[in-house]
Automatic annotation (TrEMBL):
PROSITE patterns membership: SQUALEN_PHYTOEN_SYN_2 (PS01045)
GO MF, one example: transferase activity, transferring alkyl or aryl (other than methyl) groups
Enzyme class: transferase
Alphabetical list of Gene3D superfamilies matching this protein: Farnesyl Diphosphate Synthase (1.10.600.10)
Protein name: 15-cis-phytoene synthase
Keywords: Carotenoid biosynthesis, Transferase
Organism: Bigelowiella natans
Keyword Phosphoprotein (UniProt): no
Catalysed reaction, written as an equation: 2 (2E,6E,10E)-geranylgeranyl diphosphate = 15-cis-phytoene + 2 diphosphate
UniProt keyword Transferase present: yes
Record EC number: 2.5.1.32
């Protein structure tokens, strides 16, 4: 069950990160919001706030909460006792997608008007690092 929990956690973390990365594009270009409305309401946000691209302290607090959640799922996925042949892929995905979360933070949580991304060259730097880390990890 540990491996299953790791796979589920990784899937949730990746999907949540994708949603956070694309939230502005989805709202502005597709008129869609893929965020839990009950959680938006907990932070005093409305659909109109998202659709208007309004970034304020409520939005920043909401994003901090969502980013923390995504990182918690990545940690669950990474901490499982996975076979080294697949561990590096999980860790690599966590590293690359973790940098998307970092980019959102660096953009002052403005993922409504700015797309957070990891340049291709950086992805190519991160994947070998993940591989080396997994090979150095003791079983």
């Amino acid at each position: 069950t540990e491996v299953l929990n790791s796979a589920v956690a990784l899937g949730i973390a990746l999907q949540l990160t994708n949603i956070l990365r694309d939230v502005g594009e989805d709202a502005q270009q597709r008129d869609r919001i893929y965020l839990p409305l009950d959680e938006l309401a907990e932070f005093g946000l409305t659909e109109a706030d998202i659709l208007s691209g309004k970034v304020d302290d409520r939005w920043r607090d909401f994003m901090k909460f969502q980013i923390k959640r995504a990182r918690e799922y990545f940690a669950i996925a990474k901490n499982a006792s996975l076979d080294p042949s697949v561990r590096w892929a999980v860790w690599g995905a966590g590293m690359v997608y973790g940098e998307i979360l970092d980019a959102i933070e660096k953009n002052d949580y403005d993922n409504l008007n700015r797309r957070a991304y990891v340049p291709r060259w950086r992805k190519f730097q991160l994947l070998p690092v993940a591989l080396v880390q997994t090979l150095l990890m003791k079983p």
